[in-house]
Design brief:
Blueprint lengths: L2 E6 L10 H10 L2 E6 L4 H8 L5 E3 L13 H9 L4 E10 L7 H18 L3 E6 L4 H9 L4 E3 L6 H10 L2 E4 L12 H4 L8 E3 L25 H12 L3 H16 L17
Helix pairs in contact: 2-3, 8-9
Length: 268
């Protein structure tokens, strides 16, 4: 099987000492591509230096730190041939680390940047439905993924109706919080389903044994795949092939798992 992990935070400090080994394990597990998530301007810049496909954006938690240089700097980073999306951006009305007005202002600014340069959006939404969908609809966004979807059926249908792709993480493996996703995943069109780890976060709760310090990593994506496949009543190989095609299409990835000839391949 060839898999694409559409979202892993490989710039996180927990990967500093063994990132190459993490990448090697991913490759051995059949993960052909890892897209590195950018959550601040600086982390997006760091992601661009790793040689993998990456996203460039500012997470809503950090909206309060944005300023007049934020969008020009993101635009400059996005010109790197390995940048495949703008984000992680969106709204988070759960933790509210940034005010709602700040979150909306800088989400719209990044949304407009994505539309200007023709790249998809890598979206974050937590307790922000229906506001996030309203903003997307108002701006006519057609190319985006609802990263780490954990919502209910009305939110899922709103995103599907907008034409969004849906990213499923190890949340679906959590019998406490993610049980509803085992049913909802069947509502996702086959050509819109994507898989991701969101590493080092969201380690599958049902994984045995649990990894050291419960750090998630891309090599665990096949575990998420198998859970999704069981929920769909389909073969893992079939779901793997479809989600990989979907990721290649959305992020303009080559079949080799790269988005440009200059990219570093995942190598053991």
């Amino acid at each position: 099987m060839q898999l694409v992990d559409i979202g892993a935070n490989l710039t996180h400090s927990s990967f500093r000492e063994d990132r190459d080994a993490v990448v090697a394990r991913a490759r051995a597990a059949g993960v052909e591509t890892v897209i590195v998530t950018g959550t601040t301007v600086e982390e997006s810049r760091q992601a661009s230096a790793l040689g993998f496909p990456f996203t460039a954006g500012v997470h809503p938690h950090h909206a309060r730190d944005c300023g007049e240089r934020t969008i020009p700097e993101l635009k400059q980073i996005s010109e790197h041939p390995n940048c495949v999306a703008i984000g992680e951006c969106g709204l988070d009305f759960n933790r509210n680390y940034s005010s709602h007005p700040d979150q909306e202002k800088w989400f719209v600014a990044q949304l407009e940047l994505a539309l200007e340069i023709g790249k998809p959006l890598f979206l974050h939404s937590r307790d922000a439905h229906p506001r996030l969908a309203e903003i997307l609809r108002h701006h006519g966004v057609k190319k985006a993924v609802a990263h780490c979807f954990t919502g209910e059926i009305d939110e899922l249908h709103a995103y599907v109706d907008l034409g969004l792709y849906i990213g499923i993480t190890g949340w679906i493996c959590d019998e406490r919080r993610g049980r509803h996703l085992l049913d909802l995943v069947r509502e996702i069109p086959r050509d819109r389903l994507l898989l991701e780890t969101d590493a080092p976060y969201l380690t599958p709760r049902d994984l045995r044994p649990q990894p050291k310090a419960r750090r998630n990593e891309p090599a665990l994506l096949p575990h998420i795949l198998r859970t999704v496949a069981r929920a769909l009543g389909r073969a893992p190989e079939e779901v793997a092939a479809e989600t990989t095609r979907n990721a290649r299409r959305l992020f303009s990835l080559h079949e080799s798992g790269t988005s440009a000839a200059t990219q570093r391949p995942l190598a053991a």
